Amino acid sequence: TRTTVGIVGAGPAGLMLSHLLALSGIESIAIDARSRTEIEHTHRAGILERDSVRLLVDTGVSDRVLVEGHEHKGIDLRFSGVSHRIDFQSLVGASTWLYPQTDVFVDLANARSRDGGDVRFGVTDTQVVDVTSATPGIVFTEEDGTRREVRCDYLVGADGSRSICRREVPEALRRQYFREYPFAWFGILAQAPRSAEELIYARSDAGFALISQRTDTVQRMYFQCDATEDVDRWSDEQIWDQLQTRLAGEDGFRLAEGPILEKTVLPFRSFVQEPMRYGNLLLAGDAAHTVPPTGAKGLNLALADVRVLAETLELAILKNDVDALDGYTARALDRVWKAQHFSYWMTTMLHRVDGASDFDVQRQLGELRSIVESDAGSTYLAEAYTGWPR
Ligand code: DHB
């Protein structure tokens, strides 16, 4: 078979790209090793930047985010037991939306089937071939066992943090940037009413905690833990104790508790691979970069990549402007490195590091005060969190 763009990965990045290309009349196929159900049930982050919401709504994916999502006009930074509101609306005139990544995926998958897009889940033994040729290809086995080869003009690696596509860029031509962190997040879903209307990012001497929400009856929370933590060692009571301790303060704030439905440890690392283009292969989203979860940039960054990539491919395919491909890496990385800095900064400003000196602790508190007590400081946080305007 032949198509114009072959997309490896049918998560939010791959599906959004396929959707945007279809709007310009460009044919594509998107394949994924996971089943649709598996992707729908893998809990990820839940915060969309202003422009991510616009992209979903304005390109006709769905306006469900506006109906079922929750507009957040700010966040609370909590430290030394006191909450400080960062008011996005008054600082930068923007909001974010609480809308889980799993719902973004469902909306995109529905839009692709509504519009007749070619998306295949649950494929196995995927290989990409001839990436520097004029007809690179994807070879894979369909769910029913049929082996297929699809040839295309361009290949896109939107296949996540364990990307097979990024390995196609020869070692001598690529550069990888890594940063490890000496902690992780313990994430829970709990059956309980909301403890707050918006998000609380809390720094305490016992470590970081984040209070988020999902629905009226199910809540999402995280707390800093060891990278090697075993979730099964933790009882519900111990988990609530940790969270209550990290949120405690002079205002007497208490989280509403309930049965814990799910427990997972989230990995923490920063990673970038450049270039994001090699021959006729282009990388997008986590295939090219990973951010630590603090600040919820991962999905938003993937969608921002895809918007630039769709424009790039439209120029190359519809206007014969193949030079546009040369600019993709620099255009995408400009935002990637700002988001890398922001995610790193939010992480280091709010987490406890074992063996930190008294100086380190006081400096961290000074940093937090210099953000919340100043419009100049808060405005940087608000602008980055709601998403840099394009
Ligand atoms: C969520 C996750 C994040 O990493 C974050 O910064 C904010 C919210 C969430 O899952 O709701």
From TrEMBL:
Keywords: Oxidoreductase. It comes from the Bacteria. Pfam families: FAD_binding_3. The keyword Secreted does not apply. Residues 2-342 form the FAD-binding domain. Gene3D superfamilies: D-Amino Acid Oxidase, subunit A, domain 2, FAD/NAD(P)-binding domain. SUPFAM superfamilies: FAD-linked reductases, C-terminal domain, FAD/NAD(P)-binding domain. InterPro entries: FAD-bd, FAD/NAD-bd_sf, PheA/TfdB_FAD_monoxygenase. This is 4-hydroxybenzoate 3-monooxygenase. It comes from Antrihabitans spumae.
